[in-house]
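so i finally got all the pieces together for this one. its four components total, 294 residues if u count the protein bits. some of the lines might not be protein, just check the labels. i wanna see the whole assembly predicted at once instead of chain by chain like last time, that was a mess tbh
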Amino acid sequence: MAAGSAYRTRQRTAILAYFKEHPHTHVTADELIQKLHSSGILVGRSTVYRTLDRLVEAGTVRKFVSAPGEGACYQFSVGDTSACQSHFHLKCLVCGTLYHVGCDHLQELIDHLGEKHNFSVDYAKTVLLGTCEPCRRALSAGGDFHS
Amino acid sequence: MAAGSAYRTRQRTAILAYFKEHPHTHVTADELIQKLHSSGILVGRSTVYRTLDRLVEAGTVRKFVSAPGEGACYQFSVGDTSACQSHFHLKCLVCGTLYHVGCDHLQELIDHLGEKHNFSVDYAKTVLLGTCEPCRRALSAGGDFHS
DNA sequence: TTGCGTGCAAAGGTTTTGCATGGCA
DNA sequence: TGCCATGCAAAACCTTTGCACGCAA
């Protein structure tokens, strides 16, 4: 709704382009500003926050929260939510990345829980929490560095 | 971190008492201050935050994050975290009951995700969402809900 | 008495908002 | 041209920290 009244500005184009070019990474609002800046594109903080809000509301971008007081993470959302019914979501607690995984083991588990434990798992709402490979290696390496 | 060196003060007693009396509800730091205040107990913000940090670190209380900019939610954690390492939590979305399930299928899934998908699942924080047997039967019985 | 706990105030960070200007259509 | 978008600054927000005093053991 009201999406038709959106102007195509230099800033919005740049922000959306960034997400499309980095579909599997996440950024905070401040990181996004700095990444755009290093690309020669200056965008004000207000604009970034307002644009992110719009993208989140439109479903184009997902918003994650790691810890309070820290900045929220934003990540490009590939495809629509309705396409996420036949697989599970794995969320990395470190970087906030959301992985989509669909395999037979998960299906077996669901069937098992349904038959033996009488519990019907909801695919769409369940998120498995843990640590993804890149973050696990980064943690064991001892330092925090990005790109 | 040493729990042995903890003094028993009026404020800490009141905060812990609140969580024990409301094990199934969650509060933000500010809500906690106000609830204690309405009970005639005045506790400074710093004390509340510091006490909550200790309780979280001790595993007595769990800390949730909903949205950025909003306050974190704290909730009493029944039992200690170490007891929840070898099984998963199943939460019924209908009645809210939290089930503890530990079986080989779950362990296999974890191993599979770790080996094939390079994802290390955190037992303690993951909650499988779905519908439990009693609620499922109640729903299929006629679809009459009362609340 | 010792040393932790407390509370106030100030600082730290992220996000939001007001208002004048700039730019898309 | 008419709006919307932008950007700066200031505010609002939650949380942390420094320091002096109070209190449990």
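The longest strand of chain A covers residues 127-132.
Chain A has five helices and seven strands.
anyway lmk what u think
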